[in-house]
Amino acid sequence: MQNLKLPITISPSRSAQRRLVCEGVFKLSDMTRLLATCEERSEHVQVNVKFDVDERGLTVMSGSASALVALTCQRCNELFDHKLEVEFTFSPAKNAEAAEKIPSYYDVVELNEDGEVNLRELVEEEFILMIPLIPRHDIEDCSADADSVWGELPEELEKPNPFDALKQLK
Ligand SMILES: [Zn+2]
User: Fold this and answer.
1) At 31, is the secondary structure helix, strand, or coil?
2) Ligand 1 center to 69 CA (angstroms)
3) Ligand 1: distance of its center to the CA of 141 in Å?
4) Cα distances (angstroms) measured from residue 5 to each of 1, 2, 8, 59
5) How far is the CA of 120 from the centre of ligand 1 (A)?
6) Count of H helices and E strands in the chain?
7) Contact at 8 Å (CB) between 49 and 66?
8) How far is the CA of 140 from the centre of ligand 1 (A)?
9) Which residues have C-beta under 5 Å from ligand 1, the single-atom ion?
10) How distant, in Å, are the alpha carbons of 80, 107, 131, 146 from that of 154?
11) Within 10 Å of residue 141's Cβ, how many Cβ atoms?
12) For every one of its 170 residues, what pLDDT tens digit does the chain have, with 9 covering 90 and above?
């Protein structure tokens, strides 16, 4: 995938008239509110977004975004990698009155005074909503003691010692 930098703000209505399709990246390090809850593991946030006009004449921006972060497991306190993936379908509105007319199958995004939306903030907010309230490893990956793994040997002890194999070669 190409790492084309996306514009941070964009006019949905102008983009929709051109049926614009964007595919590119934001820098994950710029998403500082998100990074207050997790650590960055990928340099980029991959985003693709498509602008269109629906049969009612509403502007629609839909797409997906993904990035890799690390969360702290609340059971064992260790970091683990977590892929953030979101899909979105927004219809922009100038104000609350206009927002009420947007059907509920779209999420509403408010336009700024220039008629633009901040695409990076939009993606960042979607990511923040995807961060689990209590991040935890899958039970089989977690190093903390749990009743279900009690009595089993830790994985390290079950792996063959590579030095034993070397000894046999000699
Ligand atoms: Zn854990």
Assistant:
1) coil
2) 15
3) 7
4) 12, 9, 9, 23
5) 31
6) 5, 8
7) no
8) 9
9) 73, 75-76, 137, 142
10) 18, 46, 29, 12
11) 12
12) 457 899 999 999 999 999 999 999 999 999 999 999 999 999 999 999 999 999 999 999 999 999 999 999 999 999 999 999 999 999 999 999 999 999 999 999 999 999 999 999 999 999 999 999 999 999 889 988 755 444 444 555 455 565 565 565 55
For the record, the structure tokens of 121 come out as 């903030």
Q: How far is the CA of 98 from the centre of ligand 1 (A)?
A: 46
Tokens of 34: 């998100």
How far is the centre of ligand 1, averaged over its atoms, from the C-alpha of 154 (Å)?
14
Q: Structure tokens of 114?
A: 């220039």
Q: How many whole angstroms from 137 Cα to the centroid of ligand 1? A: 5
Q: Where are the domains of the chain?
A: 9-169
